[in-house]
Amino acid sequence: MHRLTARAPAKINLTLRVLGRRADGFHDLVSLVVFAGTGDLLHLDPDAPLGLGVTGRTAPAAGPAADNLVLRAATEFAAQVPGARLGGFLLEKRLPVAAGLGGGSADAAAALRLLAQLNDLPTDDPRLFAAAQEVGSDVPACLDPRARIMRGRGEMLSAPLRIPALACVLVNCGAAVPTAPVFKGLGLAPGAVLPGPDHPDAFPGDAEALLAAIRALPNDLEPPALALAPAIGAAKVLLAAGPQATLVRMSGSGATVFALTADCRTAAALARRVKTAEPSWWVKPTMLR
């Protein structure tokens, strides 16, 4: 059988409210998530033994293959679907690692989609979702990468949202921002709530109204991430310095920052300006959907 391939698009949190910390120590979130036109690529060779190779510019930062979420996804899939066919994976790593882009989760979700295809399972088979939940909080949202509202730890997902495509620039300054210290920086004890604006269950389909709605909501993880990695603030300042950006914000727990722009041409111009100023940074103009 020929090699199968799936895209693993970057996940962007346009909003991210932390509602509070649960008694079990996890945090309850609500977030408008969208997916970028850029991402990793994952290949599956059905005739090879289970394993993973990683290539690409950011492959060295991805860590040991044995710890990769792709293999964990395959293991969980096999547990949910006894007797399933597996195979050998090759991951083309294009996204920065530990960057607030859900890269590892997107890779794991791509692995589950490829294994479903290999085993003739529909993409809405509940066993895929069950496996995704076991792998990680962001993986369920990445199984069907379309705009949604994500709640809880990430396991409660709205139906896909119809929102306009958004031009943007993604910038990662290379700062290392582990997720756990960012959440710890909120200082929430179990059972505590974090005050903030109510998050809507729907968003307007008009681009200007959508932008206004997003502006009214924060990313609650941005302040603790900035305290840990001030370079994130430098990236925000650089993106906001010109007239192209209509909104600048951090995605997820950082360190990637995004700037929304009026159109693709404006995004490309902004990306060139940032790359000229900071050649070592990862900079990518793209579309969000």
Walk me through this protein's architecture.
The protein has 289 residues and is of the alpha+beta class. The chain has 2 domains: 4-157, Ribosomal Protein S5, domain 2 (2-Layer Sandwich); 166-288, Alpha-Beta Plaits. The chain has helices at 69-80, 103-118, 126-135, 139-143, 179-184, 207-215, 222-228, 231-240, 264-277, and strands at residues 4-13, 17-21, 27-45, 51-55, 88-92, 148-152, 156-157, 166-172, 245-250, 257-261, 282-288. The strands form 2 sheets. Strands 1, 2, 3, 4, 5, 6 and 7 form a 7-stranded mixed beta sheet that branches. The chain has a 4-stranded antiparallel beta sheet with strand order 9-10-8-11, sandwiched between helices. Strand 6 and strand 7 (156-157) form a beta hairpin. Helix 1 packs parallel to helix 2 (103-118), helix 1 crosses helix 3 (126-135) and helix 2 runs antiparallel to helix 3 (126-135). The chain is globular, with a radius of gyration of 19 Å. It starts with a strand and ends with a strand.
